[in-house]
Amino acid sequence: MQHFKTLSSFLEYLELPRPEHPMFSVFNSKEEGFLPCPRESSPPITNDCYSISFKKFVKGDLNYGRTKYDFTNGVLIFIAPRQVLQWDSSFVFEQKGFSINFHEDFLKGTELAHQIKKYGFFSYTVNEALHLSPKEEKQIESIVENIEIEYQNNQDEFSKEIIISQLNTLLKYANRFYERQFLNRKEISNNLLDQFNQYLTQYFESGQLQEKGIPSIEQIATRMQVSQRYLSDTLKKETGKTTTEHLQLHLIDEAKNILLQPNKSISEIAYELGFEYPPYFSRLFKKKEGISPTEYREKYKLN
């Protein structure tokens, strides 16, 4: 897999103009046909850069998990360093919008270098992009215009600080707009929760728990055709619990049923539930239920 260590080499691969700054670039246009268009397709690649792109989606179906988007205004996409990128020519976008690309070292020594890692949307896939309303588009475009002005000006000691400040503002707005998208897509959020629960139920009932062990969150997300981070954020917004907590609740619920079978030891039950180490099962059970598996069995055992 090809990896690009510098911003210049990455942009050259995308067939975009060379950057004015060795670690930062911005292309911005409100006029159709002006914004440079990356190559139509690419095999899997990685790079050391962050990318924030805004495009108008005009042709083809862009899916949200298994559900097609119904909000086809501006699409804002975030990509973090070392994420695997791959695309083909099936999607068509208008050539107006903006593209901001910057090397991760551009943020070194700044507060944003730490803050940017907390934004979950950099781990989302294109299927989980942020769709903006016309009002939100104008707010984002205003910030990008400020960034572009500073980018095109002669660089001085204040340029980087000003650009990073504007980037910070852009990301805060994006975080707010994602919150809105989660709320507006309540039905889809519920559907994800249903899919999550159905997958675990089928996994448990099919005997895969004993055969393959406890499924990873990444495995579950892949099966549901969403990113791991997006699944976790969606369930957290919808239920207040993360994917890990939901998985643990399923395990504990299953454990309660098996514990009422007196012919099985605690260790046997732990192994049956996919735990490699029985003490970990006992600690998790007590953490969630307030009593140990043995105490639970004694309390609820059938007479």
TrEMBL record:
Family annotation (SUPFAM superfamilies): Homeodomain-like
Molecular function per GO: DNA-binding transcription factor activity; sequence-specific DNA binding
Residues in HTH araC/xylS-type domain copies: 198-299
InterPro entries (UniProt xref): Homeodomain-like_sf (IPR009057), HTH_AraC (IPR018060), Tscrpt_reg_AraC-type_HTH (IPR020449)
Keyword vocabulary terms for this entry: DNA-binding, Transcription, Transcription regulation
Pfam families, A to Z: HTH_18
PROSITE patterns the UniProt entry points to: HTH_ARAC_FAMILY_2
Protein known as: Transcriptional regulator, AraC family
